[in-house]
Design goal:
Layout (H helix, E strand, L loop, with lengths): L13 E8 L2 E8 L4 H9 L17 E4 L2 E4 L12 E3 L12 H9 L8 H14 L5 H7 L11 H16 L20
Parallel strand pairs: 1-5
Antiparallel strand pairs: 1-2, 3-4, 3-5
Bound molecules: FE2/S2 (inorganic) cluster (2 copies).
Length: 188
């Protein structure tokens, strides 16, 4: 008896895709239905972008698109063609951590760390727009980000400390000898 073979459906076509990721021009060929999260992790190599729920509920995959937080698991790569994308890898300025990265480290804002990249990019955007957020503005900004470890209090404290640094204009120099300044930015 002969076997009837059904023709395979054609896969999605590959299309050229360009974007600026963490300040670097990136050109790739991506599937026309590729999700930004997959392109960033699998093709661009920014593995700081985490896949949590893959359905828009955890915030682990947050990135900035033209400065605005987006859930990369819900965005087609095509939709952000030619945009500026910032992942957690792009927050530091050379060897200088972003104040919110530094304060997460000081205040225990990160424990297992899986949610941390998403929080950091969302909070960096908040502080760009509003360097002195109050508690309710902080909580509103991070309401789409889930953390199973910290209980959130350390995260809120980290944001407040980063805000104080930004507003006071103190520089964080984490390239200096840590023995001479064990708590950078809190030397009084
Ligand atoms: S992986 Fe995108 S929101 Fe959870
Ligand atoms: S630090 Fe573990 S989930 Fe947030």
């Amino acid at each position: 008896m002969s076997v009837i073979r059904l023709p395979m459906l054609p896969g999605p076509e590959k299309i050229p895709w360009k974007a600026k990721v963490n300040g670097k021009e990136i050109s790739k060929h991506v599937e026309s239905n590729a999700i930004l999260l997959d392109v960033l992790r699998d093709q661009v190599g920014t593995l700081g972008v985490k896949r949590g729920c893959d359905m828009g509920t955890c915030g682990c995959c947050s990135v900035l698109v033209n400065g605005n937080p987006k859930l990369s698991c819900l965005v087609l790569a095509q939709e952000v063609e030619d945009c500026e994308i910032t992942t957690v890898e792009g927050l530091a300025d050379g060897h200088h951590l972003h104040p919110i990265q530094e304060m997460f480290s000081e205040y225990g804002g990160s424990q297992c760390g899986f949610c941390t990249p998403g929080f950091l990019v969302v909070i960096s955007s908040l502080l760009d727009e509003n360097p002195s957020p109050n508690d309710s503005e902080i909580k509103n900004a991070i309401e789409g980000n889930l953390c199973r470890c910290t209980g959130y209090q350390q995260i809120v404290e980290s944001v407040k400390a980063a805000s104080e640094l930004l507003v006071s204009g103190k520089n964080i120099d984490n390239t200096t000898d840590p023995k001479s300044n064990p708590n950078p930015g809190f030397e009084n």
